[in-house]
Amino acid sequence: xxxxxxxxxxxxxxxxxxxxxxxxxxxxxxxxxxxxxxxxxxxxxxxxxxxxxxxxxxxxxxxxxxxxxxxxxxxxxxxxxxxxxxxxxxxxxxxxxxxxxxxxxxxxxxxxxxxxxxxxxxxxxxxxxxxxxxxxxxxxxxxxxxxxxxxxxxxxxxxxxxxxxxxxxxxxxxxxxxxxxxxxxxxxxx
Amino acid sequence: xxxxxxxxxxxxxxxxxxxxxxxxxxxxxxxxxxxxxxxxxxxxxxxxxxxxxxxxxxxxxxxxxxxxxxxxxxxxxxxxxxxxxxxxxxxxxxxxxxxxxxxxxxxxxxxxxxxxxxxxxxxxxxxxxxxxxxxxxxxxxxxxxxxxxxxxxxxxxxxxxxxxxxxxxxxxxxxxxxxxxxxxxxxxxx
Lengths: 190, 190
Known about the structure:
Radius of gyration of chain A: 16 Å
Shape of chain A: globular
Order of helices and strands of chain A: HEEEHEHEEEEHEHEE
Strand content of chain A: 35-45%
Oligomer: homodimer
Largest sheet of chain A: 8 strands, mixed
Strand order of the largest sheet of chain A: 6-7-5-4-8-9-10-11
Helix content of chain A: 25-40%
Number of helices of chain A: 5
Largest interface: A-B, 29 and 29 residues
């Protein structure tokens, strides 16, 4: 998606160790027009597919997922990160490791909002190692819900998450796929 | 706002000790059409006011704040909750106590996204004691940004936060103001 790639080139900050910061328009300060453009792109990519619900994870996925849910005309469910390992009977939960924050989250959704047979489109801002996406798919599996596919804003295609999940048969539509990045003015998309 | 009051009556769960859960449509599973309706209501209420940016706090404010930012045609900034008291030079931070989770968060925004003289509309899902709102106002004060007003989805008007802030001169537009609630079928709005 050219407008997202252009925006990353223009407003993204690239640091050492393949760290990309998009705090100016995607996950701290947010451009709502870009969020809607991304939602329209996923709507087009998944046209013809039956989608009953959008699933994302707090916090930075919520903005784009809200716009996507609006465009699809379906509810949005966001998985909550809790610090406790306290698991109650009325939630599905899974552990997700955040490499950014070096912490393992216990991620939960209430069972009543993720139902057997529902067609789920998963939306998130980043895909690198695939930890978050595998966790969200795991929640759907526990509920016996069907994962229609995933919509990702920025995929670090030089990390293995996307490839591994595609090889398992999941459809993943990433709007910007980074092939390599080496400093501020040297980013290459797939 | 009648559609929000009706929705709370229909889909809200009221527990003892004045706890209202709106997980089905507002802060876990989210109805994006309701989010847009609320955004349009705030747009109407604040018409004629200059708004440069929407400010909210993660996570449950993000959805309605995204729609509001879209309708106003301005960026959204969401304050991040961190567990550490680690304060860096490039952020404004303030402590906010969550009575729900019995924890004190160090809430932060990057300084470059909250600028002197900017006109800020603060959006959040709940107002009870006013802790979160006072914290967000405090961040604006640190930045010397101007708080145009606040848009709240659900105000517990029987708790003191709203009254205290209005007495200080802040404009607060709550779309549903609960006067009292005593069990599932007994909720009264102002």
